Fold this protein.
Amino acid sequence: MLAFTTAELNAWLIAYLFPLTRVLGLIAAAPVLNNKSVPARARIGLGVVITVALVPALPPAHGIDPGSLVGLLVLAQQMLIGVAMGFAMRLVFAAIDTAGEVIGFQMSLSFATAFDPQNGGQSAVLQEFLGLLATLTFLALDGHLMLIAALAQSFSFLPVTATPLAAAGWGELARAGGYVFAAGVLLALPLIATLLVTSIALGVLTRAAPALNIFAVGFPITLTVGFAMLALSLEYLSPNFQRLFMHGMETIDLVLRGLAA
């Protein structure tokens, strides 16, 4: 009959439970990995597999009782680290969603919505289109593998200890949010400029021919110009997406260094 001591059980919990919490925090917040169309059991199973693969390479943690108050605080700390890493990359996808929403509004397509399984609600059609395009680009660039590699690297910066997290990492995360949303507006800027020129031209046309029904003429013209410009811009979206993803990975590195400071 097998017998285990309390010390052995605590050692196993420390070795697997705390890293698993950080992994599940990343999966809960990171784009693609937290897709709601993926069953919760599959995501938990993925977290367990990643943890089992990572644990042999992690530095050992000692002196933490999982059932104590300190152990619960360390558990919450590991969850916060994983969520911060996933949220840093999620900001990039939020910027792309912002670009799609702005473009759809300028093209008078804001009323055209579709169900978004990622957010669990309605979203603009162009926002959904750019989100799917960004997801495919992210997977093609092995972004999900880079996230897992960053997760493994995070245990070097922030090993499982009872040391409190520094506040500098949260400041880096806040600054990244401001930059990334500005990047989303810049991503939509070519279409915004083109549609602005189209609106000015329609305004001049209305003043020159007051009898012209601008609502009957302007809507199809705006849609045609917007779709034509979007088709021309598709070639340049992929490199911009790649730069945003690289910025997201750099943000993760800055956040981890800030939290470890």
Q: What stands out?
A: The chain has one domain: 6-260.
